[in-house]
Write a structure and sequence with these properties.
single chain; about 20% strand; about 270 residues; alpha/beta; six-stranded parallel beta sheet; three-stranded antiparallel beta sheet; Rossmann fold
């Protein structure tokens, strides 16, 4: 039996996500319902300007958590100046709703370890715990709360960004520097039909870069947003990160540049 090309009257609900869905109803399943109209914008970037589709893009915000960015968090408790780590908060607080309104998916990727730390190898627990005093990832010393443990205060988004998080945003817990290792991040992005990733968060030279490199290796288009990435590492680490992103793994731009391009494109169609 050959069905009419336009059989939409028989089709009701959708099964799937915004990027990959079947339309089903009355004995017919449509694997390819009409896709949203592309909304490309052109953005100034380094080493070259880029054009990408807002509706196939995601902002990936990494590790903007109390333990990294709050004066009462883990890093501050072991003597790290978290001033730099707080720099992305205000521009993200203002920019995330505008990106979401333009059709960009918002993905929050945070450390969230198991309470028993059974899947954390020694090299991960050794980070910031050089003497084995149990002051590292998953410990409760010296902050009084479990460091970066899933569901804990330390692992939660800073209050300013929690206030702009939307129930429709995607949240991913990770337990390595890269957000892709042993997590649902790749499958979630593919479910959203996303191919361009805009990166924000901390630390730029550690978890942001590790996630960006994995994204590039998988085949995503990677854009490092300099004004909403930061690091508590020495300046040369930042310089090397920016150089290597531009040279090997993707492009660098700015959130304010993306927002200006969206504004110039006009209201969402």
């Amino acid at each position: 039996m050959v069905l009419p090309v336009d059989d939409s009257a028989r089709l009701g609900g959708f099964l799937g996500t915004r990027g990959r869905a079947w339309r089903v109803g009355d004995g017919l399943v449509d694997f390819h319902p009409p896709a949203p109209e592309p909304r490309p914008i052109t953005v100034d970037a380094r080493a070259q300007p880029i054009r990408f589709d807002l509706r196939r893009s995601a902002l990936v915000v990494i590790d903007m958590q109390h333990d990294f960015c709050h004066a009462d968090g883990w890093l501050a408790s072991i003597g790290v100046d978290v001033t730099a780590a707080r720099a992305p908060i205000a521009p993200l607080e203002a920019g995330v709703p505008a990106l979401r309104d333009a059709g960009i998916a918002i993905v929050w990727v945070n450390w969230g370890t198991r309470p028993d730390r059974v899947n954390l190898p020694p090299n991960v627990r050794h980070v910031y715990d050089r003497d084995g005093r149990d002051v590292g990832i998953g410990s409760s010393v010296p902050t009084g709360h479990p460091v970066l443990q899933r569901g804990s205060w330390g692992a939660a988004l800073v209050e300013e960004l929690e206030a702009v998080r939307n129930p429709d945003d995607v949240s991913i817990d990770k337990h390595r520097m890269s957000g892709f290792w042993d997590t649902e991040l790749d499958s979630a992005l593919r479910g959203l039909d996303v191919d361009t990733l805009l990166f924000a968060g901390v630390n730029a030279d550690q978890c942001v870069l590790a996630t960006l490199i994995d994204a590039a290796c998988i085949g995503y288009d990677a854009v490092f947003l300099e004004d909403v990435c930061a690091t508590t590492s020495p300046e040369y680490c930042w310089d090397a990160t920016v150089y290597n992103v531009r040279q090997c793994f993707g492009f660098t731009s700015r959130l304010d540049t993306v927002l200006a391009a969206i504004a110039a494109d006009g209201p969402e169609r």
